[in-house]
Specification:
With 276 residues, the chain is mainly α. The chain has eight helices and two strands, in the order αββααααααα.
C-alpha cells in the first residue's frame, strides 16, 4: 500500500473472488471510507459537546475506594474517544496516510464549526430576562464545551497526527508485517500524548477537574492522566482483534493487496493502464 489512496482502476486478484467493475469497486471503497470517516467525525462532535459535563468514577465498584486519597475518574467524553483512533487506523491501513491526515484535518474544521454554532446560539437574543442571560442548561453546556474543545482540539491535533505518523513508521519498519504492532504501537503513543494534554489543559484552562482542596495538585493530575490512559490502553488492546479481522476482510472486500505485498506489481499496473 502506498501513502496515497488506491485507485478504483487497480484491484488485487483473490482466488475465489470475482474482479469488480471500476464503478462497483469505487462505490465499495468510497462507502467504506465514508462509514469510517462518519463514525470518526460523529464521535468527535459528540464527545466534544458531552466532554467534561460529567466525570465517571472508575473505582465505584471497588470496595473501600471512597477512602482513596486520589480520584480514579475519566470525563464522559473520553468513553467513545478510542473509537476515533481505531477509525483512523483503518483509514491509514486501507487508504493511506494522506487520506487519514485529511480526515484528521476535517475533524479540526468540525470542532470550529461546533464552537461557532454554540457561540452564535449564546450571542443571539433569547426569551430570558436580562438578569438570566448566561444561565441555564444551554449556557452550562456551552461553557463546558468551550473548555472541552479548547483542550481536545490542541490534544487531538497532536495525538491524531502522532497516531498516523507512528502507524506508518511501524508499517514501514516491519514491511507491512505485525499488524498488531502498528495498531497498538501508534495508539498507545498517541493516547499518552492526548491524555496528558487534555488533563493539563482542562485543569489549567477550564478549571473543571474534580480536584480535592487541600491536597497536592500534581499527584491528583497524574492520577487523572493514569486513569484516562489506562482506560484507553485497555480499549486499544481489545480493539486489536476487530482491527485484525476487519483489515483482513476489508482488504478482500475492497480488492486491496495484502499489507505484506506491493499494492500493484509493475506488470499488473501496466496491464490495467492499457500498456502491453
Amino acid at each position: 500500500m502506498t501513502h496515497s489512496s488506491p485507485l478504483p482502476t487497480q484491484q488485487h486478484d483473490y482466488a475465489g473472488l470475482p474482479r469488480l467493475s471500476t464503478a462497483a469497486l469505487h462505490q465499495r471503497r468510497e462507502h467504506t471510507f465514508l462509514i469510517f470517516a462518519g463514525i470518526f467525525l460523529g464521535t468527535l462532535a459528540m464527545l466534544n459537546i458531552l466532554g467534561i459535563t460529567r466525570f465517571i468514577n472508575l473505582a465505584a465498584f471497588i470496595e473501600g475506594s471512597e477512602a482513596w486519597k486520589y480520584k480514579i475518574a475519566i470525563a464522559v467524553g473520553v468513553l467513545p474517544y478510542p473509537i476515533t483512533f481505531l477509525c483512523t487506523d483503518f483509514i491509514s491501513e486501507l487508504y493511506g496516510r494522506k487520506r487519514a491526515n485529511f480526515v484528521v484535518f476535517t475533524g479540526l474544521i468540525l470542532n470550529i464549526w461546533v464552537m461557532t454554532i454554540l457561540w452564535i446560539g449564546g450571542a443571539l437574543p433569547g426569551f430570558e430576562a436580562p438578569d438570566e442571560v448566561g444561565e441555564g442548561v444551554f449556557y452550562d453546556v456551552r461553557r463546558l464545551a468551550f473548555g472541552a474543545v479548547t483542550a481536545s482540539m490542541i490534544a487531538y491535533l497532536f495525538a491524531q497526527f502522532v497516531d498516523v505518523q507512528v502507524f506508518h513508521f511501524w508499517k514501514k519498519l516491519t514491511k507491512g508485517k505485525h499488524l498488531w504492532l502498528r495498531n497498538n504501537g501508534s495508539t498507545l503513543v498517541s493516547q499518552l500524548v492526548d491524555t496528558t494534554a487534555v488533563i493539563l489543559i482542562t485543569h489549567y484552562y477550564a478549571g473543571v477537574l474534580p480536584i480535592a482542596e487541600g491536597e497536592s495538585l500534581w499527584p491528583q493530575l497524574l492520577a487523572f492522566i493514569a486513569a484516562g490512559y489506562l482506560f484507553k490502553v485497555v480499549v486499544a488492546a481489545v480493539d486489536t482483534i476487530p482491527f485484525y479481522l476487519g483489515s483482513h476482510w476489508l482488504r478482500r472486500y475492497l480488492r486491496l493487496a495484502p499489507a505484506t505485498e506491493p499494492a500493484h506489481p509493475p506488470a499488473a499496473a501496466a496491464v490495467e493502464a492499457g500498456v502491453g
